[in-house]
Amino acid sequence: MAADRVGLTEPSRTAAIVPAAGRGERLGPGGPKALRELGGVPMLVHAVRALAGARSIDLVVVAAPPDEVSGVRALLRGLDAETDVWVVAGGESRQDSVGAALRALPADVDVVLVHDAARPLVPMTLVDAVAGAVRAGADAVVPGVLVADTTKQVDEAGRVEATLDRGRLRAIQTPQGFRRSILEAAHEQAAGAHDESAVATDDAGLVERFGTTVMVVAGHEDAFKVTRPIDLLLAEAVLARRRASGVHA
Q: Considering 35, 124, 203, 234, which has the largest number of Cβ atoms within 10 A of its Cβ?
C-alpha cells in the first residue's frame, strides 16, 4: 500500500463518491435515509449539490438503492451544476456501495473523495480542503473536529479502564479523500479477507488496516451527520440560518 509522496498533477481528475443505499433505521421509519427531506429537499440533493459545486470536483458518483436508481437519476437530473453526476446501483453495505462506485469511475480519475449523504450541509470549502490535501501528496485525508465531551475507555462490563486525553482525539467527518490506487487496493484486499480486516465503518479505517497513513485536516461544525431525529432538527435550523443570511454552502 506504500505510495510516493509527490503531489498529483493535471490532467488527472477528482471524483466524489456518495454511498446512499442505506435505510437509516435510527432516523425512524420511512424510505432510504438519503432521500429524507431537509428543508423540503432530499438530503442527498443537498450533499450532491455541495460536492458538485466545489471547485475541486470533476465528477460525482452516487451509489443508490438498487430499486431506486431510476428515481435518484431523475431527482438529480434537475441539479443546476456543470459537474457530471452519475448514479449506479449500490450494495447491501456501505462498503459494497463504495466498491460499486469505484468500479464505475473513468480511468483518468486519480483522487477519490467519499462522502456520506447523511452529511447534507458540508461546506464546499471543506470538500476543496480535503481534495487539495490529497493532491498535495497525502495518501489519505479525513476532516476532524475536536471532541467536546470527556471520553472514557471501558471494558465489556462497563468499568472505566482509562480517561482519554481529548486534546488528542478527533471526531471524524466526511468527505474523506484518497489516492484512487490506495482506496481501490484496500477494497480489493478487504474483498479477499475473511477476518475483521474485511469490514470497517469508514474508508479511512479500511485503508488504515492495510498500512496507509491517514492525515487529519480541520473539519467543520456544519458537516455533522444526520442520524437521529434530533439531528434532523439541528440540520433544519442550520439550513434556515444559511438561507436567512444568503449563504448556500
A: 203
Do 179 and 207 form a contact (C-beta atoms < 8 A)? no
- Is residue 174 in a domain? yes
Locate 68 and state its grid cell.
431506486
- Angle (CA) 92 93 95, round 5°: 130
Per the domain annotation, does 5 fall within a domain? no
pLDDT-derived band at 3, boundaries 50, 70, 90: very low
Residues in the chain: 249
CA distance 134 to 141: 7
At 73, which amino acid appears? R
Question: Is 7 inside any structural domain?
Answer: no
- Tens-place pLDDT, residues 22-65: 766 566 556 678 899 999 999 999 999 999 999 999 999 999 99
What are the angstrom distances between the C-alpha of 210 and each of 10, 135, 137, 196?
28, 21, 19, 12
Owning domain of residue 142: 13-245
- Rounded CA gap, 75 and 45, in Å? 8
| Domain tally, the chain | 1
Q: Check which CATH number belongs to the domain holding 73 and give it.
A: 3.90.550.10
DSSP state string for 2-61: ----PPP-TT-EEEEEEE-----GGG-SSS-GGGSEETTEEHHHHHHHHHHHSTT-SEEE
pTM: 0.91
DSSP state of 178: E
Q: Which residues contact 228 (CB under 8 A, 6 or more apart)?
A: 26, 27
pLDDT tens for residues 197-218?
A: 577 889 999 999 999 999 999 9
Q: Which three cell numbers stand for residue 72?
A: 435518484
Mean pLDDT of 93-111: 96
